[in-house]
Amino acid sequence: MRFLHTSDWQLGMPAAFLARYDDAVPAEFARARLDAVERLGEVAAERGCAFIVVAGDVFDSNSPDPQQLGRAVERLRGLPVPAYLLPGNHDSLDPSSVYRRPEFAGLAEHGVHVIRDSAPIEVAEGVQLVGAPFRSRTPAADPVAAALSGLDRPAGIRILVGHGQLEGFGGEALIDAGALAAAVAEGVVDYVALGDRHGTLEAAPRTWFSGSPEVTDFDDVEHDSGRVLVVDVAADAAGETTVAVEPVRVGRWAFRAIDADIASDADLDAFLARLAELPDKDRTVVKYSLRGEVTIGQKLRLDAALDRFRDLFACLYRRERTFDLAVVPGDGDLPDLGLTGVPARAAERLIAHAQSGSDGAETAARALRTLIRLAGKES
């Protein structure tokens, strides 16, 4: 039996912080999440998967934007194989659940099924799904333990679909890792499809987090996202099973966090080279943090380069909380800038004011950069 394991689509994710830098980016990012659903459907068809399991958080909330909900339902209808959706903490099966909306009426006719309880579901001859849906955003007890309760070893293949953090893997643990490992070891379940962690991870034998199919956070927080898992479970004549898992990349966006210490031209060149080497800039969000000291000439070169890069990246912005780059006078700054006469005298006064630390220092620094640009000098 081959199937596709995915989770944490987070459809309707607002990414509102991106709107502070470019109003168009959140909409582009929302479309990318929908496009990732199409691509994982293509993977399922190309690899001959019998069905898809989505281990929670199909939606980012139970009240998605109507446009996002409508478009998401259309993507679900278009999947080439049956899909089984598990309510997670973001889209729990509470009274306000998105899965109770009229848009979900009749979707089963199109092969889209919401896992509403833990009753075994026969998805193929000799193959069972057992789900552990969230009935509230913060369950009082482990839904996976409840789903496993009373289960014996099956005659065929059984796949458990759950959501939540395992003990020992960071965050607030919800799932009893020991009990889950025992169920796998005893053959009560043959594969555990988990969601909640947004990066792909083999947490234990036959127990995987698929991760989100499209990035949701920066790479200093979220690792190995943008993948789905193609899972093969085979049973021999004696009923013993083997499992093979292949991660497949479907995500196209990237969120990069770049930190650098700047103390020389070489350091500055290295930082700018890192930006230049990043691929797919129009689908990449970069936050950068710089520390150290630069001369006025270096700062002007940095600003000019960042202005060019902002036109290339989906979003490029400074991380204010950790940014600590001082501008200091450098030998020959003014001669290097090529200014003479009135512009040179104006630059001298602006430099003094910018370096004074007094009120208006930042304004003076911006004025100096404007002066250099108007004089036709970029570095």
Descriptive account of the structure:
- The protein has about 375 residues and is α/β, with parallel strands linked by helices.
- It has 2 domains: about 1-250, Purple Acid Phosphatase, chain A, domain 2 (4-Layer Sandwich); about 255-375, no CATH class.
- About 30% of the residues lie in helices and about 25% in strands.
- It contains 10 helices and 16 strands.
- It has a 6-stranded mixed sheet with strand order 4-3-2-1-11-12, with helices on one face. A 6-stranded mixed sheet has the order 5-6-7-8-10-9.
- A hairpin with a 2-residue loop joins strand 5 and strand 6.
- Helix 9 packs antiparallel against helix 10 (about 360-375).
- The longest helix is centred in the N-terminal third of the chain and has 22 residues, at about 25-45.
- The model has no long low-confidence stretch (mean pLDDT about 90).
The biggest beta sheet is recorded as: 6 strands, mixed
Report the sheet-strand fraction. 15-25%
Mean pLDDT: 91
Outline: elongated
Number of domains: 2
Secondary structure tally, helices: 10
- Strand arrangement, major sheet: 4-3-2-1-11-12
Overall CATH class of the largest domain: Alpha Beta
Distance between the terminal alpha carbons, to the nearest Å? Answer: 62 Å
Binned, the helix content reads 25-40%
Q: Could you spell the SSE succession in H and E letters?
A: EHHEHEEEEHEHEEEEEEHEHEEHHH
CATH topology of the largest domain: Purple Acid Phosphatase, chain A, domain 2
Unreliable stretches covering 5 or more consecutive residues: none
* CATH superfamily annotation of the largest domain: Metallo-dependent phosphatases
The CATH architecture term of the largest domain is: 4-Layer Sandwich
Number of strands: 16
Structural class: alpha/beta
Radius of gyration: 27 Å
